[in-house]
Automatic annotation (TrEMBL):
One term under GO cellular component: extracellular region
Species, as recorded: Parathielavia appendiculata
Name this polypeptide is given: Calcineurin-like phosphoesterase domain-containing protein
Upper lineage: Eukaryota, Fungi, Dikarya, Ascomycota, Pezizomycotina
Signal peptide: 1-21
Region of interest called Disordered, as start-end residue ranges on this chain: 494-525
Length: 611
């Protein structure tokens, strides 16, 4: 009797685990108060800047659903659209790669990712800058993702060069004209990349202001259509989208123009005019964006008096939220395809040994949720604990040094608990190494950090780029008032008048609020699908610096100036301003290995192995 009950209990637990989906070991999703989706005639789901997080956020309950769950979600949403006779389109705006072990840890990179990603039936897809930094990444994008999505992949201002033949060709078709499934609405869609210049030489990015003058573009904007859809790896407030908007609007005064943007890693929405709407859907697969349009969309029905209504939601990638929006539950939500995709991810994560733990983080270290300098700042930890140990060159170990790291080289918080192989790619996905200039007069070297941390540009000179590119990208676009207040938004209870429903069991019982996005955009403060408590946001400098092996009293005459290779142009300019004539020839490798490897090595040596 007893043993039978135990067996039964075991079987039920296993079933619950399968039903829960997400990845094994992922944090259980948390309930929270919800705002519903508003459907229109034309509806969209949008992902952007997923950066390899297709396994979900295993340590963060509110974003722990995976790409397989999104496949299930989209399947149910399409079914609902079919039943209601409306249309649903899926959009992705690039930067799908770099930033998570699922992409980065394999050799070649993306060995598992391309097959996992393609399982989602995306209707309009384009390229981000991260697909293009390294020639082999661009090659793989052209070899895998472009053919995987065929006529759904759009490259309005991007060419690819086949390095073997030297042939230059569009990365994919320049635009796409198609009809929606249920209402047969005509759509003309474009797929842009911002005016990016850091790409490897096997691709060519055409500045948007030139693209809009191309003959093909001028023909495309003269197509008879019900709606224009412009997707782009472009922030919705960047001039590139404005240029495209103006060019389309000139010839099409009444046509709805819908924009989907990304790149700047924030949730954002704005309207360029009464018939044009733009949404950006965050980063790292934390967010699934939602846009809907209602009103007279068919061009035959359109007049100057017809009004359109737009809605947007930023859906937390939380399994319970996905259940809520589909009206399903743990038993009914997962589709066979979604389940298969989750299984593909589990297999890839296991084969890549992503859960291998270098050590156990004794506490959570924040990038910007906790003040710098401070006990819980990841940057203080690097400055005080990591750099003194890893900024060591055996041949120069007796020379005092200043070690400078740009804060943008850290991309994510470290959570209390196992620091795994996956975590290394999440926290520091870059291949940057530590370089140095030997024997710089200390009086000069000590002033470099101050110049690097100036807001804006170091000098009036046009090179190098804006200083702020050394810091984290999120900070580039954070609203001034948020920065000055230190704390992000006023009140977590501010529901913006939107209908609010508790998510999860227990009717009438409102779930506890968790910390998370409390977005304000040009439409209002009711964009997030989940009501959250605000998260603190503290500004961090562009760069941090550790003094290593300094004399116990007095100042050194000269120091080795050690810095991340990525910031070399800024460091050289700063030195020049301080009267030091240094050039790239003076810059040498300081320590073997990437900064990420050095950090993982430090953790293996310094933190307990097990939690
Ligand atoms: C592109 O860069 C590679 C590596 O730096 C170089 O070998 C190649 O010649 C370059 N190709 C072109 C077309 O400039
Ligand atoms: C899920 O929903 C179905 C259909 O409404 C219902 O029969 C089932 O009991 C629900 N399961 C759970 C675990 O709530
Ligand atoms: C799911 O995987 C199983 C086993 O590999 C396969 O037979 C089935 O066709 C797959 N189903 C879908 C919808 O992908």
């Amino acid at each position: 009797m007893t043993s039978k009950a135990v067996v039964l209990g075991g079987a039920l637990a296993a079933l619950a685990r399968i039903a829960a989906a997400a990845q094994p070991g992922a944090a259980e999703p948390v309930p929270a108060p919800m705002r519903d989706l508003v459907w229109g005639k034309l509806n969209f789901l949008h992902t952007t800047d997923t950066h390899g997080w297709h396994g979900g956020h295993l340590q963060e309950p509110q974003y722990s659903a995976d790409w397989g769950d999104y496949v299930s979600f989209a399947e149910h949403m399409r079914k609902k659209a079919d039943m209601d006779g409306v249309d649903l389109l899926l959009v992705d705006t690039g930067d799908r790669v770099e930033g998570n072990g699922l992409y980065d840890a394999s050799s070649p990179k993306g060995k598992y990712y391309y097959d996992i990603y393609r399982q989602q039936d995306v209707d309009i897809i384009c390229t981000g800058n991260h697909e293009l930094y390294i020639a082999s990444t661009a090659d793989r994008e052209h070899l895998h993702t472009v053919p995987n999505f065929k006529d759904k992949y759009i490259a309005s201002n991007l060419d690819y060069i086949d390095t073997r033949s030297g042939e230059r060709m569009p990365m994919a078709q320049r635009y796409r004209k198609f009809q929606t499934k249920n209402q047969k609405l005509d759509i003309v869609a474009f797929g842009f990349l911002f005016d990016f210049t850091g790409n490897a030489n096997n691709t060519v990015v055409q500045p948007v202001r030139e693209t809009v003058k191309e003959k093909w573009f001028q023909e495309a904007v003269r197509e008879e259509t019900d709606v224009f859809v412009v997707i782009g790896h472009v922030g919705v407030r960047m001039p590139e989208f404005q240029t495209i908007f103006r060019e389309i609007r000139k010839l099409n005064p009444l046509t709805p123009i819908l924009f989907f943007g990304g790149h700047v890693h924030i949730r954002d929405a704005t309207a360029y005019d009464a018939r044009s709407f733009a949404v950006a859907s965050g980063r790292y697969f934390e967010t699934i964006g939602w846009m809907s349009v209602d009103g007279e969309l068919e061009r035959a029905a359109r007049s100057e008096r017809s009004r359109l209504s737009f809605h947007r939601r930023y859906i937390d990638n939380n399994l319970l939220g996905l259940h809520h929006h589909t009206g399903l539950n743990a038993t009914s939500f997962l589709t066979e395809h979604g389940r298969n995709v989750s299984a593909m991810i589990t297999k890839a994560r296991t084969e890549l040994d992503l859960d291998y733990a270098f050590g156990c983080a004794p506490k959570t270290l924040w990038m910007s949720r906790s003040p710098y300098p401070g006990q819980n700042s990841i940057y203080s930890w690097i400055e005080n604990e990591v750099l003194p140990d890893v900024a060591v060159n055996p041949r120069r170990k007796d020379v005092p040094r200043l070690a400078i790291v740009n804060t943008g080289s850290i991309r994510f918080d470290i959570f209390k608990g196992p620091f795994t192989r996956d975590t290394t790619y999440i926290v520091s996905p870059f291949l940057s190494k530590m370089t140095y200039i030997p024997d710089v007069p200390y009086a000069m070297a000590r002033k470099v950090i101050k110049l690097l941390n100036n807001a804006g540009k170091i000098t009036a000179s046009s090179t190098p780029p804006d200083n702020r590119f050394m810091a984290i990208p999120e900070q580039l676009v954070i609203h001034e008032s948020i920065i000055n207040n230190e704390v992000s938004f006023a009140s977590g209870d501010d529901l913006g008048g939107a209908p609010q429903k508790p998510l999860g069991e227990g009717a009438g019982q409102r779930p506890r609020l968790t910390e998370g996005y409390t977005t304000r955009d040009d439409i209002g403060n009711d964009g997030d699908d989940t009501v959250h408590l605000p998260v603190n946001f503290y500004v961090v400098p562009n760069c941090i610096q550790a003094e290593v092996d300094f004399p116990s009293d007095g100042e050194p005459e000269t120091v080795d100036l050690v810095f991340m290779d990525f910031i070399t142009p800024w460091v050289l300019i700063a030195l020049r301003l301080l009267g030091g004539e240094y050039s790239r020839e003076h810059v040498q490798l300081y320590v073997e290995g990437t900064f990420t490897e050095l950090m993982a090595g430090w953790i293996e040596k310094s933190w307990p192995k097990r939690c």
